[in-house]
Amino acid sequence: MDKRHSLSKSNLVEQIPAACSDEKTAVEFLEKQRWGNTPACVRCGSVNVYQMKNAKTGERNERYLWRCHDCKEQYTVRIGTVYEESRIPLRHWCYAFWRACTSKKGVSALEIKRQCQISYKSALFLMNRIRFAMAPENAHQLTGVVECDETYIGPRKPRYKGTSKRGRGTSKTPVFCAVERNGQIRRRIVADVTTETIESAIREEVARSAHLMTDEFSAYRRIGPEYAGHSTVTHATKEYARGIAHTNTAESSHALVKRGIVGIYHNVSREYLHRYLWQYDFLWNNRQMNDGERIIAGIQGAEGKRMMYREPIGKM
Ligand SMILES: [Zn+2]
User: What's the gap in Å between 24 CA and the centre of ligand 1?
Assistant: First the structure.
């Protein structure tokens, strides 16, 4: 993890509930996560900055503004983060981050709506941005023993499996997954499960030095020689593992996503599925962290992402 952190983890887990119920505590909590003990100007990077005060009360300005002595910029901790275009109180963001980063199967917008007493639309906005904060940045290629597998997620299986490349109508969505043994995972939606599509996903996600583990599905047959090694298990003959050759990690990760999507979200359409994959990948990739560390990782992912956000889900 990088430079910014000064809070101890146990300390952090104690602070979170307070940050979820009081706005000033929430603002200061997020400021601490972002700047540590040296608050900096979001425009010029100067640390010659100060908190603006209310002239009458001497308390912090009601918008929690900061001002830079050098460039005169006024700003808040929201600037340059996924919260920037939102007026939803930061204490609700803290609550949603807390739940999203610590619930194995995820947390629904409906639950955030109930707990924070905000509109469903606001809760949805919040959760979508949080999932975006969890999206991978500069993800490295997977190495070592890497299991590759594909699955279908969503309401219904394609009706003409094998003949139609895209399924028909509202079919289940094909998802490709590559996962290192005891390491990182990369899941992505794929247009289909043809050899060409699967191969290009593998080439992007997996380093050539890796040893691939797949089942006997034809799309995996041709690419083996490009890699350091390739072992397959033949599920058709009820072979699930042969020594270290198995795809159990990939399969159990699919099962986790499916249980979460059916149990918590009651299905997700293809259009939004990638966001849920970001969230599940984030939880998987940070599973060795304790809750406090994972919350920090989520909140830090919120910074610097605003400008990249292109999805038309409107302002809130
Ligand atoms: Zn400045």
Answer: 23
